[in-house]
Amino acid sequence: MGKKHILFFDVDHTLYNPNTKSVPQSSIDALARVKARGDTRLVIATGRAYYMLEVIDAIKPFFDAFITINGQIIFADGTMIHDDPMDETLVQKAKTIFEREALTYGFIGSQTQAVNQKSAYVEAMFEEQNLPYPVEDPAFDMHHDVYQMWAFADTPHLKIIESHFDNRVVVPWLTDGFDIIAPGKDKREGVMRILKHYGVDAHQAVCFGDGANDAAMLEAMPVSVAMGNATKDVKARATHVTDTFCNDGIAKALKKLGYIR
Predict the structure, then answer these.
(1) Ordered DSSP codes for 86-127
(2) pLDDT of residue 1 exceeding 60
């Protein structure tokens, strides 16, 4: 049977519950039932690198493709089909501003990530998010390709950072920081690459997400679902809003859209 549909899923606060450090059982069961249909591909679309996806090991076998690092590296059927590191000029600009503002910041590479300086706050954040702890290397960019950067920042610092960049570059977290991505290179672009790769029309696809880095892909799709825990702005970009990730939101949305019964 030809696979005529594609469903795209964000990870954190969409599939993955950081409070329990697990994927809700209702989501696991729902994805298994969609997979059993035989006509639908499942795709991850995440800001995490592939090496950060151990948190969803329970469901990884269900997925055909992975849009990682907000679209900078993409795998389909076990093969890398897209690899696009950040421009070195953007990396250097970000480093200069971060250091001037005395921010703790990090780099995401293809195989590992690094932080410019370790601290108790960095350790706590990575523990809370169940992420592998980064190496300490403020010169990481000198000997690795960088695909994304991030920094901790309160609201005043965030406003300063935003004033220096195109508004597509700075992607705020829900709290305490932000990502730096290349302008115009985001999950939306990754979704479009996957649709083209598999030859599936956008009307046969659905995107699920909750955060600022999901907004572009949700807005671009004819059908999209914002989680109940999403921000008001993200909900406004989607065509549907489901329940929260921890209250069977994925299963409820898949039933409403007719992918499962």
Answers:
(1) PPHHHHHHHHHHHHHTT--EEEE-SS-EEESS--HHHHHHHH
(2) no
